[in-house]
Amino acid sequence: MKDLFNDVMDINGVKGIVLLSGEGKVVYDTDANNKTNAGKPYANWNKLLVSLGDAREAEFLFEKGRLYLRKTHDGFMIVRMQLIASIAMVKLNCDILLPQLKSTGNSKGLKGFFKR
N or C: which end of the chain has fewer CB within 10 A? Predict the structure, then answer.
């Protein structure tokens, strides 16, 4: 699955991608094997997702970085990035990536990636 995210991860300033189920549970995290993030608890993403309502995408700007949230077929994708990252390139690559996520997972959604 990591190969699907290579184009987004190769954008200068992109730090990671997290896929969430519709309920806000982490389905995939590009930093899952990163020892610096090991053991760090995730916030309750569900509260944030509920506050988005029917929004298709959202961008959050912080002092030292940004989050780009994008609705997927059956959940959400969050792209963590530095301020220098080109949001236009991130959005374009997400537009290309989302149909691949839907078709690769077939009708099972994101969970289809993890079944053998």
Answer: C
Going by C-alpha positions, the residue among 35, 33, 40, 30 that lies closest to residue 8 is 30
Closest CA to 14 of 35, 30, 37, 32: 30
SS3 content of the chain, % helix, strand, coil (to 5): 35, 30, 35
Over the stretch 19-66, which tens digit does the pLDDT of each residue have?
A: 888 888 888 888 765 544 444 445 677 777 888 888 899 999 999 999
Task: Calculate the CA dihedral of residues 46, 70, 26, 111 and round it to 10 degrees.
Answer: 120
E strands of 1-116, at which residues?
14-21, 26-29, 57-62, 65-71, 75-81
Q: When comparing pLDDT for 86 and 74, which is higher?
A: 86
Read off the tokens for 27: 């389905």
CB 1 within 8 A of CB 28: yes
